[in-house]
Amino acid sequence: MNRYVFYPFIMVSFINLLLFVPYILIQARFSGAVTSMIVGSVIGTIFVYMYTGALARFPGKGLPEILKLHCPQWLVSITMICSAIMWWFGTTIIVVTYALLINRFFNPDANPTLILIMLILACGYAATRSTLSVMYVIEIGIIVNAPIIIFILFKAVRSTQLNWDSIHVVANYVTEMPTLTAVAAASYIFTGYINLSLFNRLLPPNFRFKFRWVYPLFGILILLVSFFVPIGFHGTVAVNEYIYIWSITADSLIMQYGFIERVLFLFLIVFLNLTLIYTMSGWHQAMESIKSSFRNYKPEIDSPRTPISNYVIVGIFIVLTFLYLQFANEKNGIIITTYWLVVRMFVEGIIVVAVFILSRWRSKST
Amino acid sequence: MNAYIRIALASLIIGMLGGCGFKDIDKRFFVVAIGIDASENEKKPYRITLQLAIPSPSIEPGASKTQIETIDAPSIAEGVRMLKAYVDKELDFGHCKIYIVGEKVVKTNYQDTLQWMMRRRDIQNIANIAIGRPDAASILKVIPISERYPGNTLFLSFGADGTESSYTYVETLSDLSRRATEQGLDPLMPIIMKNKESSFIINQTALLDKKRIKLVLSPTEAQIYNQLANDFTKSSMHGMFEGSDLVVAITNIRSKFRIGKQNGKDTITMDVKMKVVFEEAPRGIFTDQWTSVQQNLNQEYAKSCVALLRKIQKAGVDPIGFGLRYRATHPKPDSWKEWESIYPEIEFVVRPNIIIEGTGLIK
Q1: Chain A residues with CB-CB distance to B328 below 8 A
Q2: Which position among A250, B9, B44, B256 has the lowest Cβ density within 10 Å, counted as fewest Cβ atoms?
Q3: Distance from CA of A33 to the nearest CA of B (A)
């Protein structure tokens, strides 16, 4: 069952390539990105250990149930609605970014609105399913796509075009002070553990978190690759000129005898899958959070009938996402993402610390 | 879900499929190569040449047919737009893998051209870029007699599928754009020349700074450059031993360099390790002492390498990336300024270590 903890973690750490995380870090490459990555990794690792350690004492309970044990209802409702907004927004940014990305790379004649509607209808339908089905879809998605992503990353690292001197130049800026946005961006890669807020419901009573050391190791590896490989490919100066930095990096790779020569298309297709899965899981969690904010809600992990409320809530999400696209473009998308990443770090910090304290407090009182 | 909703959703999705700007393949012109030249006209300084593939049912040598369209325009983007009015099908750059820049453009300033290429989303970063001599248009007008598909000759010349010549430096767009901005790593491009009317010669390399050509390497120099900078193995080396000619083929080559001080002077030390097999040698060399032959080869190789490196240094460019290495190994805020003052006076030491593996099939 430990794999059900690991899949969301892998998913989130891969999706960072689309969420402007490399972009934000690369902008700060001469002003503290490297230090921020170290700080971000430390923060991420501590959070992973604290949160899993705390949740181990609440087997089979999600975040809302834990909070309901100890807190007044109004506090639970506010927390849940806040986290729902956060989850909805974090995934919406990605799906909207991807709709724009399709417009840029696949077909400039295509209407981003239409593409977005198709994407969000698919995600929305998947998000209304039960928690268990959502988990299975994540599992299938990761198993199918992760090998290809790892292949692309590996190919990039092994490429002769990679200039280690450029990487070395940037790595030398390790003495600069970290910046808040860069730390927030770097710690995002480790944020997959927060999915346990919901998916902890799926874990059996006698569950134990194993191989926890894998999470920081994997996260740091992905972080290093996603930051340093574009620098090795585009040099220390030109790397700052691109908006979709990883799409351009994938485009610089060549598969001589591949099915298609341009790695870019493979990259985009794989990340399309990942975006859909990520959006589905994010919306599902946001939906469950909203439902849990009501007093007499009983969580079900695999209900035979889909409640109407699911459709209503996801319908609202779809409409809001659609409205967000009307207002978003690449420029404000990056600014909004940056703010979101910072807010996310603090909200997550509060949730993790709160749950951790609750778990210790409970063990003392019993 | 009830059936009506399902049907409605399905029809909605199917209805959207028509929304993409889809054009059939026979309504498209595939551009296989683009040439960008400087024209005489001051108001329209760019001359854009597109090589369009004409699909042909027969696949045999010489069956390739292309159409050439040329236009003078005030900017590249406008030129390409305007050319759409000259043809009946939609232009598609998805298969364009060769960009040829006229020598005149590169002699003045290539940055605008490069920026246009980087900004266009449908221009591949893995495309090859080269300089056309005397201009790009005349290179694109060459009709190679052995060509099977439109544009294939140039694709094969640069890719690893066809010929792999040690004289040809292969440059991709993404590498060029990195070199065009990086401090301490300068761009270089191969030069394509016309050989009569039906083939190309690509054996010279132009070294550029951030704006224009600084130096053109002769074929021999271009080969040594490829060996030093790219560890290009399928190449040969020429030497003398006791008055007779020696030619060896390189089977394995590894070169690395480091920057340091030797006898109080800043020095770049290059270690080149290679394994070679004789291709041309006097008879009976099998029984001779190989160590003295190796020493002779080492000395001669070192001499030609140092001469090449000095020449590059005198031109004020740095395609191998010595400056970048200096920045990496000397992390100081003003290390780039320091390097700029060091580089013109730096000494080169090349230490080849040639190991003879065999004399070929005969003694």
Answers
A1: 165-166, 168-169, 172
A2: B256
A3: 16
Question: Inter-chain contact B328–A238, Cβ cutoff 8 Å?
Answer: no
Residues of B in contact with A232 (CB under 8 A): none
pLDDT-based confidence at A218, cuts 50/70/90?
Answer: very high
Of A117, A121, A168, the CB nearest to B328: A168
Helix (H, G, I), strand (E, B) or coil at B248: strand
- Asked if A107 and B20 come within 8 Å (Cβ–Cβ), the reply is yes
pLDDT at A118 over 90: no
pTM: 0.88
Q: Say how many CA atoms lie within 13 Å of B186 toward its Cβ.
A: 20
H-type helices in A293-329, by residue range? Answer: 308-327
Tens digit of pLDDT for each residue in A191-216?
888 888 888 888 888 888 888 888 99
- Whole-angstrom distance, CA of residue A272 vs CA of residue A118: 12
When CB atoms are compared, the residue of B21, B159, B321 closest to A110 is B21
Phi-psi region of B28 (alpha: psi -120 to 50; beta: other; left: phi over 0): beta
Span A122-156, pLDDT tens digits: 999 999 988 889 999 999 999 999 999 999 999 89
Residue of chain A whose alpha carbon sits nearest to that of B125: A252
Nearest-CB residue to B178 (from A107, A234, A262): A234
| Interchain proximity B124–A105, CB inside 8 Å | no
Helix (H, G, I), strand (E, B) or coil at A254: strand
- Note the pLDDT of residue B17: 57
Q: Which amino acid is at A88?
A: W
Which stretches of A159-210 are DSSP H helices?
A: 164-171, 180-188, 196-199
**Cα distance between residue A79 and residue A82, in whole Å:** 5
Q: Which two tokens stand for residue B74?
A: 């005030």
Higher confidence at residue A298 or residue A215? A215
Cα separation values, A247 from A189, A345, B225, B362, Å: 18, 26, 31, 53
pLDDT in tens, B93-151: 888 888 999 988 888 888 888 888 888 877 888 889 999 988 888 888 888 888 888 88
Other C-beta atoms closer than 10 Å to the C-beta of A22 total 27
Provide CB contacts within 8 A for B289, sequence distance 6+: none
A114, A169, A235 ranked by CB distance to B328: nearest:
A169
Number of Cβ atoms within 10 Å of the Cβ of A192: 24
Phi, psi (deg, nearest 5) at residue B32: -105, -20
* β pairing state of B90-92 and B28-38: parallel
Residues 6+ apart with CB under 8 A from A238: B177, B178, B180, B181, B182
Distance CA A328, CA A242 (A): 18
Q: Looking at beta carbons, which residues of chain A come within 8 Å of B21? A: 107-110
Q: Which of A118, A238, A256 sits opposite B160 (nearest CB)?
A: A256
Shortest CA gap A332–chain B (Å): 20
CB A157 within 8 A of CB A225: yes
Q: How many angstroms separate the Cα of A290 from the Cα of each of A76, A77, A95, A283, B211?
A: 10, 8, 21, 10, 58
B180 → chain A, closest CA residue: A238
| Coil vs helix vs strand at B210 | coil
CB atoms closer than 10 angstroms to residue B4: 8
| pLDDT tens-digit map of A16-62 | 888 789 999 999 888 889 999 999 999 999 999 999 888 888 888 88
Is the pLDDT at B20 greater than 50? The verdict is: no
Q: Return the sign of the alpha-carbon dihedral for residues A297, A299, A305, A307.
A: positive
Nearest-CA distance A110 → chain B (Å): 5
For residue A39 the two structure tokens come to 């700080």
* Cβ contacts from A onto B, under 8 A: 91
Please provide the size of chain A in residues.
Answer: 366
